[in-house]
């Protein structure tokens, strides 16, 4: 999707590789496995410094869980970078995954076709969090300064608007 937006995309596998990028997307997957690998390779401090520098970071699905300050009311220790409380797999099991059209005013008037796969749910957000979209009364897209979180998978749609919004949060041309 980043390439479709006209930007270069690099796969980051080691913390020092973050020095060569202007933005970071923490993708979906299995949040427990990703968190263990992040700790093993020393990513948490590097990602916190990356965010503190003002560079944009986007977390989709598992990436959102990793960025959250709380999970079901309990403070998270790994990154704790955006004031939200999340519930894992809130929209059900794999078989209950769904696709729905949602309104996201910041990307335009046309609905966005959102793909939810065992998606987390944002149960609450702090005062510094800007809610950008909801589904069934729950936050599914939000921003706090240079962090964007997304409960669905915008990379599975072919619609670049969410990624263009993210890249516009701070990338220098």
Explain what this protein looks like in three dimensions.
By secondary structure, this protein is α/β, with parallel strands linked by helices. The chain has one domain: Class I glutamine amidotransferase (GATase) domain (Rossmann fold, 3-Layer(aba) Sandwich). 20% of the residues lie in helices and 29% in strands. It is built from 4 helices and 11 strands. A hairpin with a 2-residue loop joins strand 3 and strand 4. The radius of gyration is 15 Å and the shape is globular. The two termini are 17 Å apart.
Helix-strand layout with pairing:
Blueprint: E1 24-26, H1 31-41, H2 43-52, E2 57-60, H3 62-67, E3 68-71, E4 74-75, E5 82-87, E6 98-102, E7 112-116, E8 121-125, E9 130-135, E10 138-144, E11 147-150, H4 161-167
Parallel strand pairs: 1-2, 2-11, 3-5
Antiparallel strand pairs: 3-4, 5-8, 6-7, 9-10, 10-11
Tags for this entry?
5-stranded mixed β-sheet, 20% helix, globular, Rossmann fold, 173 residues, 4-stranded mixed β-sheet, alpha/beta, 4 helices
